[in-house]
């Protein structure tokens, strides 16, 4: 019902509102993402205990079987993706580990510096916070699912099972915990500190430090440092990321250019104004003179 | 125009709703080491004395002289200084005793295993001289944002234990170490022959020599004289067995890996000392038949009975690879002169008339391994070895 209410507002305010929300969707471009928070996941430290999956659901008040049941390693048989019922999953890549072991890979929302989902969202339901996380506001969401198409990491999931009030679901970096000064639930529960929470700038330094000190162990690539303009959540690994089903992405942000064009043009409602102005001009020029007198008569009649 | 007013009111309402939902981060959630907020806190509370963090009396921004803890300037104890059995038998880790039975860590078992690896410093990576601080002295219960490198206590323990255990047993379940409180656990661990945790690691057999068959067409045999490298060349295990852990030898619990797969690995320890870059040097190791091993005769200088008793290092003091020495006796024996050298040890006791000559008077040019030249003093009728300057024993 909330969405329907929102539609009413939309209808009432018309195109004018779309202009303002488009502006609200983009975060402050002047903010240095390295000053925001992020997480660095070291895949070589992950042991696939999947406690993070439990902690995530627990922190978001989602339905979850007890922690004990996460010992079950049979789930690794097939490759899983984060979905509306779990914002993070650990996959096991058998035989891909450094040396003798399997490599366990935790995936969740990357919290991009220039998020494509935020750019695609026409109502500003997804928002990039200046301090890092990409958050979702269910109240604004109209369920268009453009974010799902836009996300290069295929993260946002949709509650297709919920016919009445479906929501888009994804990791929010435990923003409610962050506000209380706590670290994300998955980071906190990880028994081996495979994830490090901190300032993005510090994490990049840490990642490179680890790689330089153990050049035999790690591949020289911090995934998320440059990908699509950088992400707040980053990975280091002992296997190339392409082999761990991560997309190989360009360094430049894909949303910067279209956003700057779109937001530049639509600023101050210019294109609609110009369009209607142009139509008005055509009307004015093509109007026969007899009509003009008629119209003035009607106006008189009104008065 | 009047119709537009409610539209604007609604617009304003929406705008304010949107603004309502803002998030913010508490200020001290993340701190970089350079942030002064931690410092200000410590100073304001007055409870932290300066020397908790600083080593000098007047720390400056340029030289904060922070105590090096943990890794950056850590000093390591080496396994050479401590024998594995010097440490405690078991260590009880009971920080979580409210949740689980204490973890009983078989310290001696692990320290004896570490002798094959990097030694004590594999775990005790920060041990200043004279003390072995417990993990919790540096690793706090929660990860600290000013030092992202340092894992929390929980992280440190689990990184340490599971590094080997997940490779070795592929078992990362909590109850491998943490017994639930409700399960009745014996107060002290009972040796269980089926469980490697609880029994000492069997003594590792040091092979005398290993013979490898290589795919080389002509010279198929490579003989590695293992015992020789340990006894004769005084290599420590860790000089070759670098960063080894259980899984290097064990496929799993009780399963020993076949050695054949690791042949490639052995090229590097050899070639670190034996220069194999030039083609001709391949034959140094790769031979048609088993090599007989090292004797000093191979160097062209067979050892006398006195030299045989010595260790290599007493004549070749410099580090490996050992260098060729000057064969002249006085190159090493600098303190020998007439009066303190007992010539009878050579098997020839000098007669009284010869006792007081300088060594070089008979052994010309200090060539002590050459027969003496009698004719320098005597007429040509006196010839060594028919005529001796003393009595042979």
Explain briefly what this protein structure is.
The complex is a heterodimer of chains A (303) and B (393). By secondary structure, chain A is of the alpha+beta class.
Task: Write structural notes for this entry.
- The complex is a heterodimer of chains A (303) and B (393).
- Chain A has 303 residues and is α+β, with helices and mostly antiparallel strands.
- Chain A has two domains: 2-254, Alpha-Beta Plaits (2-Layer Sandwich), CATH 3.30.70; 269-302.
- Chain A has helices at residues 2-13, 15-25, 51-59, 116-120, 146-150, 175-179, 185-189, 200-213, 256-266, 270-286, 289-302; strands at residues 37-42, 89-93, 103-107, 126-128, 134-136, 157-158, 168-169, 195-199, 233-236.
- Chain B has three domains: 54-196, Cytochrome C3 (Alpha-Beta Complex); 210-294, Cytochrome C3; 343-392, no CATH class.
- Chain B contains twelve helices and nine strands.
- Chain B has helices at residues 4-20, 37-45, 107-114, 153-168, 226-231, 237-240, 246-249, 263-273, 305-308, 312-315, 329-332, 359-362, and strands at residues 91-93, 103-105, 210-213, 221-224, 250-252, 255-256, 286-287, 348-350, 390-392.
- Chain B has a three-stranded antiparallel sheet with strand order 3-4-7, with no helix packed on it.
- The chains are: A alpha+beta (303), B alpha+beta (393).
- At the A-B interface, helix 1, helix 2, helix 6, strand 8 and helix 8 of A face helix 1 and helix 4 of B.
CATH class of the largest domain in chain B: Alpha Beta
Number of domains of chain B: 3
Strand content of chain A: 5-15%
Examine the coordinates and then state which fold CATH places here, giving the name of the CATH topology of the largest domain in chain B: Cytochrome C3
Give the domain tally of chain A: 2
Give the fraction of residues assigned to helices of chain A. Answer: 25-40%
Strand content of chain B: 5-15%
What is the approximate shape of chain B? elongated
Average the pLDDT over all residues of chain B and give the rounded result.
Answer: 72
User: Major sheet of chain A: order of its strands?
Assistant: 8-1-9
Distance between the termini of chain A: 43 Å
Major sheet of chain A: 3 strands, mixed
What would you say the CATH architecture of the largest domain in chain A is? 2-Layer Sandwich
Determine the fraction of residues in helical runs of chain B and give it as a percent range.
Answer: 10-25%
């Amino acid at each position: 019902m909330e969405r329907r209410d929102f539609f009413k507002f939309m209808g009432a305010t018309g195109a004018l509102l779309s202009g303002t929300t488009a502006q609200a969707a983009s975060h402050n471009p002047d903010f240095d993402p390295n000053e925001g928070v992020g997480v660095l996941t070291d895949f070589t430290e992950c042991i696939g205990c999947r406690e993070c999956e439990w902690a995530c659901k627990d922190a978001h008040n989602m339905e979850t079987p007890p922690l004990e049941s996460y010992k079950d390693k049979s789930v690794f048989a097939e490759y899983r993706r984060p979905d509306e019922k779990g914002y993070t999953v650990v996959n096991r890549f058998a035989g891909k580990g450094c040396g003798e072991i399997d490599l366990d890979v935790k995936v969740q929302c990357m919290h991009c510096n220039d998020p494509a989902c935020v750019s695609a969202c026409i109502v500003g339901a997804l928002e990039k916070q200046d301090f890092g996380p990409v958050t979702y506001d269910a109240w604004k969401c109209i369920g268009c699912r453009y974010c799902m198409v836009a996300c290069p990491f295929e993260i946002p999931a949709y509650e297709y099972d919920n016919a009445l009030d479906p929501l888009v679901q994804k990791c929010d970096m435990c923003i409610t915990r962050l506000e209380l000064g706590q670290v994300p639930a998955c980071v906190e529960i990880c028994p081996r500190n495979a994830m490090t929470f901190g300032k993005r700038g510090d994490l990049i330094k840490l990642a490179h430090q680890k790689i330089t000190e153990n050049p035999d162990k790690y591949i020289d690539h911090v995934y998320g440092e440059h990908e699509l303009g950088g992400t707040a959540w980053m990975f280091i690994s002992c296997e190339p990321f392409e082999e761990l089903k991560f997309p190989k992405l360009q360094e430049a942000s894909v949303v910067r250019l279209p956003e700057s064009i779109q937001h530049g043009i639509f600023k101050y409602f210019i294109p609609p104004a110009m369009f209607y102005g142009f139509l008005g001009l055509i009307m004015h020029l093509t109007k026969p003179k007899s009509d003009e007198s008629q119209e003035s008569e009607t106006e008189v009649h009104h008065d | 125009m009047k119709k537009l007013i409610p539209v604007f009111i609604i617009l304003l309402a929406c705008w304010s709703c949107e603004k309502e939902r803002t998030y913010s981060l508490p200020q001290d959630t993340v701190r970089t080491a350079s942030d002064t907020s931690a410092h200000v806190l410590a100073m304001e509370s007055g409870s932290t004395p300066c020397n908790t963090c600083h080593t000098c009396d007047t720390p400056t921004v340029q030289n904060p002289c922070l105590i090096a803890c943990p890794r950056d300037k850590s000093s390591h104890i080496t396994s050479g200084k401590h024998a594995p059995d010097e440490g405690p038998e078991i260590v009880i880790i009971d920080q979580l005793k409210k949740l689980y039975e204490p973890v009983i860590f078989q310290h001696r078992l692990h320290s004896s295993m570490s002798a094959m690896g990097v030694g004590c410093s594999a775990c005790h990576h920060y041990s200043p001289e004279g003390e072995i601080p417990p993990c919790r002295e540096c690793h706090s219960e929660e990860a600290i944002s000013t030092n992202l490198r340092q894992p929390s206590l929980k992280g440190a323990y689990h990184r340490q234990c599971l590094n080997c255990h997940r490779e070795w047993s592929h078992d990362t379940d909590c109850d491998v170490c943490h017994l639930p409180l409700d399960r009745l656990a014996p107060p002290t661990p009972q040796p269980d022959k089926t469980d490697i945790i609880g029994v000492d690691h069997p003594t590792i057999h040091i092979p005398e020599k290993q013979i490898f068959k290589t795919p080389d067409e002509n010279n198929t045999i490579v003989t590695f004289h293992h015992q020789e490298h340990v006894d004769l060349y005084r290599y420590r295990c860790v000089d070759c067995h670098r960063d080894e852990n259980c899984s290097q030898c064990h496929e799993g619990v009780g399963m020993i890996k076949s050695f054949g797969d690791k042949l490639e690995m052995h090229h590097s320890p050899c070639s670190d000392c034996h220069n194999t870059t030039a083609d001709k040097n391949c034959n140094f190791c790769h031979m048609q038949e088993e090599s007989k091993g090292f004797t000093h005769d191979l160097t062209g200088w067979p050892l006398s009975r006195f030299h045989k008793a010595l260790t290599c290092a007493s004549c070749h003091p410099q580090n490996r690879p050992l260098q060729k020495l000057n064969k002249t006796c006085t190159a090493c024996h600098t303190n020998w002169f007439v009066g303190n050298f007992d010539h009878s040890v050579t098997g020839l006791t000098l007669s009284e008339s010869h006792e007081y000559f300088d060594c070089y008077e008979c052994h010309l040019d200090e060539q002590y391994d050459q027969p003496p030249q009698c004719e320098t003093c005597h007429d040509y009728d006196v010839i060594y070895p028919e005529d001796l300057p003393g009595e042979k024993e």
